[in-house]
Design brief:
With about 130 residues, this protein is mainly alpha-helical. Helix content is about 85%, strand content about 0%.
Length: about 130
């Protein structure tokens, strides 16, 4: 039996639009990177491992679901995802807060951009 939080989350995901799902992924990616950065800054490198692994998985999923022929900038975004994944692997292996913070900065900017775009789509459809 699912607990109420899991039930709510499952319902939220199952009823979300593709643009909302994308923003949710970016929100979780940002959270993972923030948790990893905090752990590294607090001198707890082992606590950064799981969030960095999860961040890598999310970036791989974003890249795999990207339709590179759908719009002009998609190939560049795919290259950025490849680069981010590579940097996240380096950050995790070295437990490097500088690389982690750089990735957090890039992802935060992307998240904000996608959130704005999703909001514009929602407003246009209303």
């Amino acid at each position: 039996m699912m607990n109420p939080r899991d039930t709510y989350l499952a319902a939220t995901v199952s009823t979300a639009t593709p643009s909302q799902l994308l923003v949710m992924l970016y929100d979780r990616l940002t959270l993972d990177l923030q948790r990893a950065s905090d752990a590294l800054r607090d001198g707890r490198p082992s606590a950064a491992h799981e969030p960095l692994l999860h961040a890598q998985e999310i970036v791989l999923e974003l890249n795999a679901s990207l339709k590179v022929d759908a719009w002009e900038g998609a190939a560049n975004l795919a290259s950025l995802y490849d680069y981010l994944h590579s940097e996240l692997v380096k950050a995790n292996l070295a437990k490097d807060p500088t690389i982690t913070d750089f990735c957090l900065h890039v992802v935060s900017n992307l998240r904000d951009t996608w959130r704005d775009a999703a909001g514009s789509l929602l407003a246009a459809s209303a």
